[in-house]
Fold these 2 entries.
Entry 1:
Amino acid sequence: MNGDYQFFAAMLVGLMGAGHCFGMCGGIVGAFGQALPPHRPMAERMGFLFAYNLGRISSYTLAGVAVGGLAGALGTLFAVDSYLAALQLLAGIMLILMGLYIGQWLPLLAHIERAGKPIWQAMAPLRQRLLPIDSTAKAFAAGGFWGWLPCGLVYSTLTWALASADPVAGGMIMAGFGLGTLPALVAMGAAADKIAQMIRKKQLKLLSALVLIAYGGQMTYIALNQIV
């Protein structure tokens, strides 16, 4: 699959998952905001906000590089027939499950998110060392931790990066996904009420869910044709 296409498709997935981002990350954005030194100018606070998100997207990209490289290495090592198609099938199913989760039709991924919480909790002592967040470097590092928050949307996109079986493609997929989530999370951090209200609307959540299901269905269909 074309690398540019995957990058922009992953960006669309991130954009369509905006409603989920509000539910998952609202508390974290609020906590980061409270950790900033008080009475800073808005321009400086926005600088911290973008540093947070740059750290978060960097974590996603690093994870994409890692899983894409691992899948490629395993494929070369074992040369299993239909190996990449099977990974693509997994990615398609995960995107469908994510759409069902966002649409509130089948909250199966909530269990996967809960399973990842021990990792997030284990990072708590390291996160505490960054407080108070009084520099953009600390904000970037805090965002890097944020990128490892247990999230079904991230896990779903990571399976897509895994299916790429290439470190560059995997990194591009996760970077595109992270950039797609940026508008929602910047709006949240900047208290952009009108944007926040629009993203929370049920109709937009349903549209987002259907787009994710449709894209996951297309990926599943392609994978099944390659296997059969």
Entry 2:
Amino acid sequence: MGRLIVIEGLDGAGKRTLANGIAAELTARGHSVARSAFPRYADDVHAELVAEALRGRHGDLGDSVHGMAVLYALDRRAAADALRADLRAHDVVLLDRYVASNAAYGAARLHQDSHGDFVAWVHELEVTRFALPKPDLQILLQVPTEVAAARAEHRERTEVDRRRDNFESDAPLQQRCGKVYQQLAAEDWWSPWVVVDGVNHVDFGALVGQHVLAR
């Protein structure tokens, strides 16, 4: 059975770059890697509805913290069997966002911390009720909010179809979300976490050797 590794962080933190570096290092060491990212906008109707709601469609759906969280959760539930199959077939399954994103962003929208009702509700829904595959490791790619925002703005200017949504352009929300992420990581919420500096150069070899492949 392979290891499930999750990369978490703010919009613009550099999660895709980190995933690319980890995957390249693992492949160079002879390990097979499967990758996925949530929400699965192109593959799941729940994620498609999320994207539309974040851009103002579907009435007041985007304003409902719990309503949006359920859509995110249903996207992952629909992917659960495929994740389990990937874990059976590969050494490492690498995810860009997972359940902790739901917990962090929803809590931040409600001005709660990691000990609030919302994080507990997400755990009950996705971990207990949906029984999603548990990560072996969650990596928090930590960057200052202003750095993440600048990267997200650059991505919006330079990449086709990467216009920022309502969450990505809300600076106070991103700041609160960063704090919830830090709490989740400090508490090893659901599974072990490691915090990686997303500003300075990441030593992919050390990260893979010390954490990703550790048993």
